[in-house]
Amino acid sequence: MFDPEDQRVDEFELSPDSSPDGGVTLHVRAELDMATVEGFEPALERAIAESAGPVIVDFAECRFVDSIGVRALIRGGRALAARGRVLRIVGAHDQVRELFGMIALEQASAIEFDDRRNGDR
Predict the structure, then answer these.
(1) Pick the CATH number of 11-114 from 3.40.640.10, 3.30.750.24, 3.90.1700.10, 3.90.550.10
(2) What is the pLDDT of residue 71?
(3) What is the pLDDT averaged over residues 89-115?
(4) What's the chain's Rg over C-alpha atoms?
């Protein structure tokens, strides 16, 4: 289903997940803010449309997220919830995790957190 060579959108890369549930992983390799959200949102929408399982957003290489980035994650979570699926956030560094905690993102519909860091799988 996925051609990894065709999935690069600026600093965001989409790849099939190794789990048997049909999920995909979206790797965030840039700050997720007003300057980059225009690349992130289409990649997230594509991940949702072209997969059947959870969408995993890997923040292991992302050191900063602002409110615009959070809004994109909430929209993605809502789109997945409407399909009975979840958005799973993994690898969030301290600033990112702290922001998510302050706004109670983990309480948003269809958004889950996994505290594993890159390489802990």
Answers:
(1) 3.30.750.24
(2) 92
(3) 83
(4) 13
